[in-house]
Amino acid sequence: MELLETINSPKDLRKLKKEQLPELCQEIRNYIIETISHTGGHLASSLGAVDFIVALHYVFNTPEDKLVFDTGHQAYAHKILTGRKEAFKTIRKQKGLSGFLKIYESEYDTFGAGHASTALSAALGMACARDQKKEKNKVVAIVADGSMTGGMAYEALQNAGLLKTNLLVVLNDNQMFISKRVGALGSFLTKLLSAKYTQALEDTIENKIGDSDIGKNVVKLAKRAKSILFSGVLFAEMGFKYFGPVDGNDVLALVDTLEQIKDIKGPVFLHIVTKKGKGYPPAEAKPTKYHGLGIFDADTGEVIGKSDRITYTKAFSDALMKLAKEDKTITAITAAMPEGTGLAPFRETYPERFYDVGIAEEHAATFAGGLATQGLKPLVALYSSFSQRCYDQIQQDICLQNLPVVFAFDRAGGVGEDGPTHHGVFDLSLFRNIPNLYIAAPADENELQHMLKTAFEAKAPFILRYPRGSAVGVKMDAELKKLTLGKAKWLSKGKDVNILAVGNMVHPALEAAELLAKKNIDCGVLNMRFIKPLDTKAIKEALDLSENIITIEDNVLAGGFGSAVSEFICDNNCQASLLRLGIGDTFVEHAKQAQLHEELGLEPKQIAASISKFLNKRRK
Questions:
Q1: Distance (Å, rounded) from C-alpha 435 to C-alpha 399?
Q2: CA contacts within 13 A on the Cβ side of 222
Q3: For 297-322, what is each residue's pLDDT tens digit?
Q4: Which of the pair, 224 or 156, is modelled with greater confidence?
Q5: Which among 366, 384, 495, 560 could bridge 522 via Cys, Cβ 3.0 to 4.6 Å?
Q6: Residue 613, Cβ neighbours under 10 Å: how many?
Q7: For strand 438-440 and strand 530-532, is the pairing parallel, antiparallel, or unpaired?
Q8: Is residue 333 pLDDT above 50, yes or no?
Q9: Where do you find CATH 3.40.50.970 in the chain?
């Protein structure tokens, strides 16, 4: 790491000779592999992006010039080069560096990046602000190819082409999407067509003959021919000058190309092709496996310390496979997350009934609605934090028409090290206000499989939310059964106080009740199962046992499950004393799930302490 040790900012990077950059790239890769093997994180994408990140910081005068990343998956080299080299050892740890880009973590993180398809819009806004202020800095949007499946990216592209402001878009095509063509001829032609004298000639011809009708047609035909040759006809039609594809893992060629095109006027589109997992054979061989992973052995690539317990995602996947075998109308949809949502086995077994629509949650929801109108049983599997993107579609296209679409919200609640962009703590508040919709949360993996069967048989819009990671470890029933819609389940009944719990807060509530029993506090636990509709009969029964009611959820308190119970109590003039436990009016930072629960006061000991304090105040 001789070169990397000398780099504390991009200014230091720009002091190196160009010929030293390949060696620096390898040192950065080695540092990423070594660090992430101890912390876990997004490995394959960041390894593939090292060369072009080095090239961008080498050519552009950051932070005055703005680099806008579309997701943080690819940006580890960016963090290392921008004054966070030592802090990189803390990435994704509690109080350490975020695994994604944060606008308040560094001046080089020009825009937050956790979700996809946002960089183009943000970069265009920065470019237009620069123009209004009559400044001269450059703006570069770095977009991963998967992000180009999102509709928002195309909204920004067409707007950029219309505005014609100076903006460079770098498409990182990691061969998981779009073109794979990279070769000597392509590199030669890109160099030729990006050369300054070639661009000057092109502009001169357009200025000289472009005003006449014939001239316009000639210029248009020439640009189209150039774009077809270079796979960029779509971007050229949107008003971009397109270059590529070029080898995104050849740092020297990238520096040359960027030097040639950085001063071209108007919107420019550079298409680079990179290899996911570049420089680390296990990640090159299995880029999906090494997209995001926990602690692993850097020598072998094997993950260390995996839990023996089944995950909620696996329980969902297994149940779906059972149901799909019996019912050929069940169809599965995901937005570019087949592995993450557990749909990979379904994809392999029933490819004709599986649809990966790309990073397009809005389309996924309405597409599912179309399937439902024709008698199919569509399931849309999303991460909870991505579900907010299709709120309008769930409300207008699914629930308003009362279409039987099942939404499986994986990663509900706190997700751990991925942090605030990925915590699924808003879904209950977002969706429980919509009519015709069922919302359910299982207490454990066994209840999850039964809830999935219930969701398909409900013949109505249905959201099933469940957390990330290892499940409770309960025995799984061999046969799936339908649960009674909107019906809660008493686990114990208390004379002093009763906890109304949902989802993965049920078992912590049971533990808290045991701790309270040691203090001679008789505490019951009601597994609500359904957030919408509420089992109001069970709530009334709880109030008959004791006026003291506790609600607990892994959702924000504003508008969540506790709010629903509070509304019922208020609307029905019930005599009650209510304590709501959940997440306050804040964005939750990154840490391990257990650490997050402790921060939020949702560990069993803390729950018991909160209830004791609540009851003591009631007695005074």
A1: 7
A2: 15
A3: 888 888 887 777 899 999 999 999 99
A4: 156
A5: 495
A6: 11
A7: antiparallel
A8: yes
A9: 4-285, 312-465
Q: How confident is the model at residue 209 (pLDDT cuts 50, 70, 90)?
A: low
pLDDT in tens, 117-159: 899 999 999 999 999 999 999 999 999 877 888 888 889 999 9
Comparing CA positions, the residue from 144, 116, 122, 136 lying closest to residue 60 is 136
280 or 611, greater pLDDT: 611
> Taking the model in full, what pTM does it have?
0.87
Q: Please give the positions annotated as active site.
A: 276, 361, 389
Structure confidence by residue, pLDDT tens digits, 227-257: 444 456 778 778 899 888 889 999 999 999 9
Classify domain 4-285 by CATH number.
Answer: 3.40.50.970
- Please name every residue paired with 354 in a beta bridge, in sequence order, or none if there are none: 332
Token pair in block for residue 367: 């597409």
Residue 419 Rama label (left phi>0; alpha psi -120 to 50; beta): left
Tokens for 64, please give them: 């005055």
Q: What is the DSSP string of 487-520?
A: --EEEE--SSEEEEE-GGGHHHHHHHHHHHHTTT
pLDDT at 538 over 90: yes
455 CA to centre of own chain: 25
Segments of the chain assigned to CATH 3.40.50.920: 489-619
b/e map 379-395, b = 16+ CB within 10 Å: bbbbbbbbbbbbbebbb
3-state secondary structure 246-309: EECCCHHHHHHHHHHHCCCCCEEEEEEECCCCCCCHHHHHCCCCCCCECCECCCCCCECCCCCC
Strand, coil or helix: 315: helix
3-state DSSP call for residue 35? helix
Q: What is the pLDDT of residues 446-458, one digit of tens each?
A: 999 999 999 999 9
- Residue 523: other Cβ atoms inside 10 A: 29
Which amino acid is it at 282? P
Average pLDDT over residues 594-617: 94
Which pLDDT score is estimated for 49? 93
Terminal-to-terminal C-alpha distance of the chain: 65
Topology at the third CATH level for domain 312-465: Rossmann fold (3.40.50)
- Would the pLDDT of 218 be above 90? no
Q: At 22, which helix (H) or strand (E)?
A: helix 21-39
pLDDT value, residue 125: 97
Confidence of residue 177 (pLDDT cuts 50, 70, 90): very low
- Which CATH fold topology does 489-619 show? Rossmann fold (3.40.50)
Sheet holding 406-410, edge to edge: 354-356, 330-334, 377-383, 406-410, 462-465, 438-440, 530-532
- Expressed in percent and rounded to 5, the helix, strand and coil fractions of the chain are 45, 15, 40
174: phi then psi, degrees, rounded to nearest 5: -95, 25
Helices (H), 432-505: 445-457
Estimate to the nearest angstrom the gap between the alpha carbon of 427 and the chain centroid.
Answer: 14
pLDDT over 60 at 197, yes or no: no
Q: Which of 580, 501, 494 is nearest to 541 (CA)?
A: 494
Angle subtended at Cα 551 by Cα 545 and Cα 552, rounded to the nearest 5 degrees = 140
Q: Quote the pLDDT of residue 213.
A: 63
What is the C-alpha separation between 63 and 137, in angstroms, rounded?
10
DSSP 533: S
